[in-house]
């Protein structure tokens, strides 16, 4: 349910990123509406994660602009971008495995905490109040991800699907308005994937977030997305609604490798939900 009367929350304008002689993404332009679920798909190596890394400040574009909530961010550091309202997860889970679930979420709040080291050392009232509020919010996030009883568990001891949810909770701890999810169902079984699909909708509907999603699982993408952009060899080759993307011959040839009638959600036969393509590994 995008907010049609507002400017896009994220504008990517002609972004190009080169690594030596390799152009990972070339002249990519995308508008992401407020409170939408927007997916970026494409073969392995198409430039999807490079695009995420440009948005979040890990890479600086060689050309183009990235505008978030009306402000250019393509020259900012990752911590500045996080503080400005963008959070992300990763294709490979990035948790502090030796810390508890609760501690992982508290780490995610770092950019929002205001008490300085002197207040912390002296245990001044402002510091104690902020700590209490942070703990309350961390427990609330554990309830939101349906893991209310794991706060004291070591993160690495949690089941795989729970670790994925915990990583999302840690991203939510920074109070973003835009959440980037990089293959959130990677390694999950069908039930876990279905649970994540419903959870992504909750992020938008209950938290008011805009979600930008990279995902290889086509049934999830087609069910949960309102807008989809397709990258191939670093260039955007298509953009539109799920129905438009399903029936785009160039998309089918470049990425899906199957006839359009096999891609429709609910069809009896669907392509396997893997990242394997004719283009090979990323």
Our measurement of the CA-to-CA distance between the termini, rounded to an integer number of angstroms, reads: 32 Å
Q: What order do the helices and strands follow?
A: EEEHEEHEHHHHEHEHEEHHH
Mean pLDDT: 86
Specify the biggest β-sheet: 6 strands, mixed
Task: Tell me what you see in this structure.
With 282 residues, this protein is an alpha/beta fold. The chain has a domain at 1-85 and 219-282: 3-Layer(aba) Sandwich (Rossmann fold). Helix content is 37%, strand content 21%. The protein has 11 helices and 10 strands. It has helices at residues 48-55, 78-84, 101-108, 117-122, 125-144, 160-172, 190-207, 218-224, 242-246, 249-256, 260-263, and strands at 10-19, 22-32, 37-41, 63-68, 71-72, 86-88, 178-182, 210-214, 227-232, 235-240. The strands form 2 sheets. The protein has a 6-stranded mixed β-sheet with strand order 6-7-8-3-9-10, with helices on both faces. Helix 3 crosses helix 5 (125-144), helix 3 (101-108) packs parallel to helix 6 (160-172) and helix 5 (125-144) crosses helix 6 (160-172). Mean pLDDT is 86; it is low at 116-122 and 263-282.
Describe the protein's topology:
Layout: E1 10-19, E2 22-32, E3 37-41, H1 48-55, E4 63-68, E5 71-72, H2 78-84, E6 86-88, H3 101-108, H4 117-122, H5 125-144, H6 160-172, E7 178-182, H7 190-207, E8 210-214, H8 218-224, E9 227-232, E10 235-240, H9 242-246, H10 249-256, H11 260-263
Parallel strand pairs: 3-8, 3-9, 6-7, 7-8
Antiparallel strand pairs: 1-2, 1-4, 4-5, 9-10
Quick description:
By secondary structure, this protein is an alpha/beta fold.
């Amino acid at each position: 349910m995008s907010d049609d009367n507002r400017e896009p929350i994220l504008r990517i304008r002609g972004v190009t990123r080169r690594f030596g002689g390799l152009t990972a993404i070339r002249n990519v332009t995308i508008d992401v509406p407020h409170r939408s679920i927007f997916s970026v798909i494409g073969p392995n190596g198409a430039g999807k994660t490079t695009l995420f890394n440009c948005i979040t400040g890990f890479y600086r574009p060689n050309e183009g602009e990235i505008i978030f909530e009306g402000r250019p961010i393509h020259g900012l550091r990752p911590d500045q971008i996080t503080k400005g309202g963008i959070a992300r997860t990763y294709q490979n889970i990035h948790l502090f495995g030796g810390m508890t679930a609760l501690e992982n979420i508290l780490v995610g709040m770092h950019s929002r905490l205001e008490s300085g080291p002197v207040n912390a050392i002296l245990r001044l009232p402002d510091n104690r109040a902020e700590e209490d509020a942070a703990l309350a919010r961390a427990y609330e996030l554990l309830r939101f991800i349906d893991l209310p009883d794991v706060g004291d568990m070591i993160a690495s001891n949690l089941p795989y699907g729970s670790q994925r949810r915990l990583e999302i909770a840690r991203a939510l701890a920074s109070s973003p308005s835009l959440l980037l999810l990089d293959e959130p169902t990677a390694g999950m079984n069908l039930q876990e994937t279905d649970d994540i699909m419903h959870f992504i909708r909750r992020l938008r509907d209950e938290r008011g977030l805009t979600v930008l999603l990279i995902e290889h699982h086509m049934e999830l993408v087609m069910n949960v997305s309102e807008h989809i952009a397709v990258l191939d060899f670093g260039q955007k080759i298509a953009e539109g609604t799920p129905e438009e993307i399903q029936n785009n011959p160039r998309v089918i040839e470049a990425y899906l490798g199957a006839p359009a009638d096999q891609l429709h959600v609910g069809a009896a036969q669907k392509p396997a939900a893997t990242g394997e393509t004719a283009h090979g590994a990323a």
